[in-house]
């Protein structure tokens, strides 16, 4: 499967927003966005001027794709699914993305970043309702219990992530029992609980053209 393998800090600089793609490093002075908060490339420091409506919509879509670590084809499938559901398409899209297992692992503090969470899930370190699940895009449901496998609880990446989890905001729609390496999905998030600086309506406008 295709994936982005270039510098993660370039993505933050391109979107002019800290996307927290490198875990705890993003909270330190080593953060690439803090050191060079201008767009990447030879002419990054000279970029400016008026951006078209299309350009604004495109940047919003790219921002969300990069937050969740997706390429265009996969992201478009999520949008098509959100469009078919009842309710507001933009909100449906964000909820579908939040329901991904790798995102849940990140949100509950068992991984320092979504990229790390994706790798841990693929390596079968987690169970859902007692069953091994190694598919990062697995859609969790209300009542699902996500646990770190007993044999995986001493992994340094997981323990380090749990120690630094206090830097992040705990989602109210998830119940985390860190002592038992367990998290429960209490509900799906509503729009007010998704505090990311995202205007999903711009994505809907872009794909509706």
State the main characteristics.
Ribosomal Protein S4 Delta 41, Chain A, domain 1; about 210 residues; five-stranded antiparallel sheet; alpha+beta; Structural Genomics Hypothetical 15.5 Kd Protein In mrcA-pckA Intergenic Region, Chain A
Question: How would you describe this structure to a colleague?
Answer:
This protein is an alpha+beta fold and 209 residues long. The protein folds into 2 domains: 8-42 and 50-97 and 197-207, Ribosomal protein S4/S9, N-terminal domain (Ribosomal Protein S4 Delta 41, Chain A, domain 1); 100-187, RNA-binding S4 domain (Structural Genomics Hypothetical 15.5 Kd Protein In mrcA-pckA Intergenic Region, Chain A, Roll). 40% of the residues lie in helices and 8% in strands. It contains 9 helices and 5 strands. Strands 2-1-3-5-4 form a 5-stranded antiparallel beta sheet, with helices on one face. The mean pLDDT is 84.
């Amino acid at each position: 499967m295709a994936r982005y393998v270039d510098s993660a800090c370039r993505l933050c600089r391109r979107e002019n927003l800290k996307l927290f793609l490198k875990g705890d490093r993003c909270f330190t002075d080593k953060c690439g966005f803090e050191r060079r908060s201008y767009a990447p490339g030879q002419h990054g420091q000279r970029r400016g001027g008026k951006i078209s409506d299309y350009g604004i919509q495109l940047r919003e879509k790219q921002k969300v794709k990069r937050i969740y670590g997706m390429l265009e084809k996969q992201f478009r499938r999520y949008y098509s699914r959100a469009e078919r559901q009842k309710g507001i398409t933009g909100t449906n899209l964000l909820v579908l993305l939040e329901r991904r297992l790798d995102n849940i692992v990140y949100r509950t503090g068992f991984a320092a970043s979504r990229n790390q969470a994706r790798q841990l899930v693929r390596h079968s370190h987690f169970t859902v309702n007692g069953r091994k699940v190694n598919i990062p895009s697995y859609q969790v449901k209300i009542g699902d219990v996500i646990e770190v496998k007993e044999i995986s609880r001493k992994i340094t990446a997981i323990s380090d992530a749990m120690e630094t989890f206090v830097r992040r905001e705990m989602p109210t729609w998830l119940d985390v029992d860190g002592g038992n390496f367990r998290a429960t999905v209490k509900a799906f998030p509503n729009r007010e609980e998704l505090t990311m600086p995202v205007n999903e309506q711009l994505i809907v406008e872009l794909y509706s053209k």
